[in-house]
Amino acid sequence: MALEEHAKTPPAVWKPTSAGELREAERLRPVEVIPGKALYRRILPGVIQAPADYILGLSRKSSVWPLTFGLACCAIEMMSSYMSHHDLDRFGIIPWASPRQADVMIISGTVTKKMAPAIKTLYEQMPNPKWVLAMGACATNGGPYTRYDRVVQGVDKIIPVDVYVPGCPPRPEALIEGLIALQNKIMADRKAIG
Amino acid sequence: MSDIDEEKEDKLAGSAPTNGDVFKMLQEDHEAPVSPGTVADTFKEVLPDVTFASAQGALDVILMIAREDVPRVLRAAKDDPRLDFKYLRCLSGVDHMERGLEIVYQLYSYTHKHSVTLKVRLPQEDPHIASVTSIWRGADWHEREAAEMFGIVFEGHPNLVPLLLPDDMTDHHPLRKDNPLAQIEEWQGVRLGEDVVNVGHIPAGYEELAAKSAGDGEEGKE
Amino acid sequence: MAKRGKNRLMVVEEERDLETIDINVNVGPQHPATHGVFRMVLTVSGEKVVDVVPHIGYMHRGAEKLSENADYRQALIFQDRTDYLAQFNCEMCYVMALEKLAGIEVPERAEYIRVILSELNRLTSHYMFAGAFGTDLGVYGTVYTYAFREREFIQEVFEEITGDRMMYGYFRPGGVVWDVPDNFKERVRAVCEKTRIGINDIERLVTGNEIFVARSRDIGVISGEDAIDYGLSGPMLRASGVPVDLRREEPYSIYDRFDFDIPVGERGDSYDRYLVRMEEMRQSLRIIEQALEQMPEGPILPEKLPRRLRLPPGEVYMRTENPRGEYGIYLVSKGGEKPYRLKIRSSCFCNLMALKKMTVGHYVADAVTILGSVDIVLGEVDR
Question: Which CATH fold would you assign to the domain B6-155?
Answer without folding.
Answer: Beta Polymerase; domain 2 (3.30.460)
